[in-house]
Design goal:
It is built from 13 helices and eleven strands. With 319 residues, it is α/β, with parallel strands linked by helices. It has two domains: 2-132, Glycogen Phosphorylase B (Rossmann fold), CATH 3.40.50.2000; 160-317, Glycogen Phosphorylase B (Rossmann fold). The strands form two sheets. Strands 8-7-6-9-10-11 form a six-stranded parallel beta sheet, with helices on both faces. A five-stranded parallel beta sheet has the order 3-2-1-4-5, with helices on both faces. Strand 6 (160-163), helix 8 (175-184) and strand 7 (189-192) form a beta-alpha-beta unit. Helix 8 (175-184) crosses helix 13 (306-317). It is globular and about 55 Å long. It starts with a strand and ends with a helix. The model has no long low-confidence stretch (mean pLDDT 97).
């Protein structure tokens, strides 16, 4: 059986597909092809359950024709947008897709009416593929670190990782909050993040190990894997830490865990805590995020209780 799994989008979204990739490979014995954006290939190549990564910048006729020649038995659409639907129609292959609960998200964002299912997106993925005989194995997510990837030499033996990156500004932890956390934590703190948050990392005056902009996704994952825990916002690193079965503290800005994309460990017992300002009548303001707070105050981040975060750090690393 040859299966094409589709997920474009961001790093975190692709990590969330890993449980379905593994289950389809092991439970069906299928040949798995994965269609995604080109930037995901730089870290996804080490996934041992994918037989072929089909990565693209522009989906053109040549790529469409090459997919048709693969003669797939089944498509699993974990993106479910107009582009993925056009691809499926062109292939004329049986397909499955999941419920994106966009109407429920719209109601929550615009009217604060909560009709969201109390179910993680990964569990909704498994519901969608159950008719193929695929079931949740309880092993959570996967992230495979290439054995060739080295840990930076100047790391201490014990440290906490704090991730600055997120796809939207309104998901990112502000520099002032970062400084308060670093100053209160009694172990070394390593800052990670992409080149787009170098300015935030450079603005932090508190004593820390700043690796922002210096690491690849694979290298960042290795730093997380060897750390004691991760402090992050709603970001790709949240899902990578979940795949690595690392404890974490998640600081939520404009998005909410009720959207179904919080830490997912499957049946594994791993500690995590969420921090969110729940009483704000403007939150969530988007299912994704903005380049700046629409209200101008950014209270969902600026009012975070850093003392509670610091206390949780010490609780999780010294249980």
């Amino acid at each position: 059986m040859k299966i094409l799994i589709i997920r474009f989008s961001s790093i975190g979204d692709v990590v969330l597909c890993s449980a379905i990739i593994r289950a389809a490979k092991l439970q069906l014995g299928a040949e798995i092809h994965f269609l995604t954006k080109a930037f995901n290939k730089s870290w996804l190549y080490s996934n041992k359950y994918i037989d072929r990564i089909i990565a693209f910048d522009v989906f053109d006729q040549k790529l469409s024709d090459s997919l048709k020649q693969e003669d797939y038995d089944q498509v699993i659409d974990l993106h479910k947008n107009l582009r993925s639907q056009r691809i499926i129609r062109s292939l004329r292959v049986k397909s499955l897709h999941f419920d994106k609960v966009n109407i429920q998200k719209w109601l929550m964002v615009n009217f604060k009416v909560n009709r969201l299912p109390n179910k993680h997106i990964v569990d909704r993925y498994f519901e969608a593929v159950s008719r193929l005989g695929i079931s949740n194995d309880g092993k959570g997510l996967d992230f495979f670190i290439d054995p060739q990837v080295k840990l930076p030499d100047d790391l201490p033996k014990k440290y906490v990782v704090l991730s600055l990156g997120a796809s939207f500004q309104t998901k990112r932890i502000p520099g002032s909050i970062i400084e308060e956390i670093i100053e209160g934590v009694k172990v070394p703190v390593v800052l990670i993040g992409g080149k787009d948050v170098i300015e935030i990392g450079d603005s932090v005056q508190a004593q820390c190990i700043n690796m922002v902009g210096a690491l690849s996704i694979q290298e960042s994952a290795k730093v997380i894997a060897h750390g004691q825990l991760l402090i992050t916002s709603d970001s790709a690193m949240l899902h990578i830490a979940s795949a690595l079965k690392k404890p974490q503290l998640v600081i939520w800005g404009n998005t909410i865990p009720a959207f179904g994309m919080g830490p997912y460990y499957g049946g594994q017992e791993v500690s995590f805590k969420s921090f969110e300002i729940g009483e704000l009548n403007c939150r969530p303001c988007s299912k994704l995020g903005y380049s700046a707070c629409p209200k101008g105050h950014f209270k969902c981040m600026m009012q975070q209780d850093t003392k509670a975060v610091i206390s949780a750090v010490h609780e999780l690393i010294h249980p």
